[in-house]
Amino acid sequence: MKVTVDFEECLKDSPRFRAALEEVEGDVTELELKLDKLVKLCIAMIDTGKAFCTANKQFMNGIRDLAQYSFKDALVENSLTKFSDTLQEMINYHNILFDQIQRSIKTQLQTFVKEDIRKFKDAKKQFEKVSEEKENALVKNAQVQRNKQHEVEEATNILTATRKCFRHIALDYVLQINVLQSKRRAEILKSMLSFMYAHLAFFHQGYDLFSELEPYMKDLGAQLDQLAVDAAKEKRDMEQKHSTIQQKAALQDYSSDDTKLEYNVDAANGIVMEGYLFKRASNAFKTWNRRWFSIQNNQLVYQKKFKDNPTVVVEDLRLCTVKHCEDIERRFCFEVVSPTKSCMLQADSEKLRQAWIKAVQTSIATAYREKGDESEKQEKKSSPSTGSLESGSESKEKLLKGESALQRVQCIPGNAACCDCGLADPRWASINLGITLCIECSGIHRSLGVHFSKVRSLTLDSWEPELLKLMCELGNDVINRIYEAKLEKVGIKKPQSGSQRQEKEAYIRAKYVERKFVEKQAASVPLLESGTKVLPPSQEEKRHSGPEKSLLAGEQGAASQKAVAVSSDEARRESLFCPDELDSLFSYFDTSSKLRSIRSSDSGIQPSAEDSREHLASTVSANSLYEPEGDKQESSVFCDSKQPSPGLQLYRAAFEKNLPHMAEALAHGAEVNWVNVEENKATPLIQAVRGGSLVTCEFLLQNGANVNIRDMKGRGPLHHATVLGHTGQVCLFLKRGANQHATDEDGKDPLSIAVEAANADIVTLLRLARMNEEMRESEGLYGQPGDELYQDIFRDFSQMATNNPEKLNRFQQSDSQKS
């Protein structure tokens, strides 16, 4: 260790000692300044480095955002992700480097300055103080007079003590100087060495990191070279395509548009055809707006801007038709008509109009096949086959739990196979016949026309509750017993699922159009099998000819209700359901409480045979889909030796709520709007109202019954349903277009009748329907704001009337004579 200031010189306190001290003190002061500056520079460097890391991190996040944006390009996404990960590692290494610099430079040098140099300064202050005291003692000792012995003595003692103290402080000061000079070298070099090692580790880590990334970067470079070649090739191809299309466009003949539209049913993107059309608005001014139309997913839609959600014009092309429109002034117009609305469109030329019309027609023709195939595949994948029949109790339980239309309808006996060819798991139905069909047979039925068969999908279409119950009341077994009664006698073989379409079509036409296999009516046998007694001829004649024995409609209703009660009790003994469930199932609407009241008042009392002959014009069938198949008993209308006409049979069966008998009467040629001149010109639909069955009314309406035919008193079905308080029937007739403004012979319309009877539910329905009708008439000014609410309310009433009729059963009538 080299001594900066000699200790011997310290004791001498020579000029050399003083000069050495001055030199050392100046050096220490300069060292302190240098170290302070270095520490400040280090702090600034660290702060700048952290700011760099922050900016670098933001840049790295930008790269990651770009990678996520390029998710469709795997090469770009993977490359940017790898680069951002590498940069993130480098940011981490930078942070480690700055932490080490802070510890090595800032912390160590600041400690040296604050501790060691401060000790030197403190020692210097003490040395300067004692040195000054020594000088004062020497001066005082020199100035004392010889003759003043006590002063001499005092001065001598002070000088001795001061010299002793000076030597002690001076030696400590010299020691501190020598230690500081020696230590500062080690501290400075140690901190700088630590700083350099931190950089060495940083660059080693970066080198290792990029060494791992280097092979990937080389591969990417090679791929970029290939991408440049491919891009040049694609550019040449696009230029060639551009030239070809330009030449083709020059050769094409355009009438009024720059583009030529062609339809493609098998387009890969599902868009059969698209292009601009003018659409006539439904407002009062009938303005025309140009919109972008397209046929896709069996729908006709349009949109104003690309970002706008498409507006659906026709939700299902199977339900619409298209036709030319030549009765307006504008050219090239055509109309797309759906069950709920029509849309007037205009093309830019005659060629484009023909192309659009052909595209819509072709889409309509293929919609059934496409929808049917997709539905069958999805159903077979998602659910087990329902081809096998379940036990009676399980089928009934499913029916009451409200499964899908397919499950509910297929659990009816015979419905698990196509009614006409026997193919298992049918997905289509004829709603006016009440049968299930395979997709091929449904297409044949559709070609017969809606006056013979109305086809609907069990999986693609929505089903109203009353229509679903109609399907459950009939079924393939019931209809085939009627329409295939003579099949074995005539020797015709029923086609199978694998038969040719021509064979199936010929058989279906013979079965439903020509009705070749229906058992002809005989004069001496009843129309239907009967499980009850039959009136003698004299009683039947008297009932129709003699006024003293004729039955009013109200008397028929009361008597028939008693018969319902009796037959219902008999059915319960064979049923798997509790009485409360059967009340809802035997009577679809508000007659259920009447049956209970009649049954409770007449319990244990059976009417006499004479009373039955005089008061019962018919009996209600106990045939129900809820009975076990083997225990079903069918009752029929009373008849004499001369068979009643099919119209009369339909009339009677409508009151009895016996759908199988009604279907048989229609199969024998009954006119659905047959008028009974002997009973105020009432129709079967009016009788169905009196019978109180919602599903019977639905059956007649589906088979073409006119909802506005009135009797001699000027009352139509809506009048009768209002008088009887049958809310569900009122709702049904209003949905089917009944005229609520018609008045009877007393000048009363249904609304005034409902108001007088204080039936709040029916008044609500009638007023809502009238309000909606007024809104439709003035749609040019106000649009149709009430349609959605109107439909929701009527839908709720339909659900309640079909599934929970007791909730609407507020209006009880003692008899039906008021109708």
Automatic annotation (TrEMBL):
One Gene Ontology cellular component: endosome membrane
Biased amino acid composition, Low complexity: 383-392
Species of provenance: Lepidothrix coronata
Cited function: GTPase-activating protein for the ADP ribosylation factor family.
Keywords attached to this entry: ANK repeat, Cell membrane, Coiled coil, Endosome, GTPase activation, Membrane, Metal-binding, Repeat, Zinc, Zinc-finger
ANK repeat windows: 680-712, 713-745
Coiled coil: 117-147
Regulation: GAP activity stimulated by phosphatidylinositol 4,5-bisphosphate (PIP2) and phosphatidic acid.
Entry keyword Cell membrane: yes
Gene3D superfamilies given in the database record: Ankyrin repeat-containing domain (1.25.40.20), Arf GTPase activating protein (1.10.220.150), Arfaptin homology (AH) domain/BAR domain (1.20.1270.60), Pleckstrin-homology domain (PH domain)/Phosphotyrosine-binding domain (PTB) (2.30.29.30)
GO molecular function: GTPase activator activity; zinc ion binding
Limits of the Arf-GAP domain: 403-525
Principal localisation: membrane
Protein name: Arf-GAP with coiled-coil, ANK repeat and PH domain-containing protein
Topological type in the membrane: Peripheral membrane protein
Basic and acidic residues composition bias: residue spans: 369-382
InterPro entries found in the cross-reference section: ACAP1/2/3-like (IPR045258), AH/BAR_dom_sf (IPR027267), Ankyrin_rpt (IPR002110), Ankyrin_rpt-contain_sf (IPR036770), ARFGAP/RecO (IPR037278), ArfGAP_dom (IPR001164), ArfGAP_dom_sf (IPR038508), BAR_dom (IPR004148)
UniProt subcellular location: Cell membrane; Endosome membrane
Free-text comment about domains: PH domain binds phospholipids including phosphatidic acid, phosphatidylinositol 3-phosphate, phosphatidylinositol 3,5-bisphosphate (PIP2) and phosphatidylinositol 3,4,5-trisphosphate (PIP3). May mediate protein binding to PIP2 or PIP3 containing membranes. The BAR domain mediates homodimerization, it can neither bind membrane nor impart curvature, but instead requires the neighboring PH domain to achieve these functions.
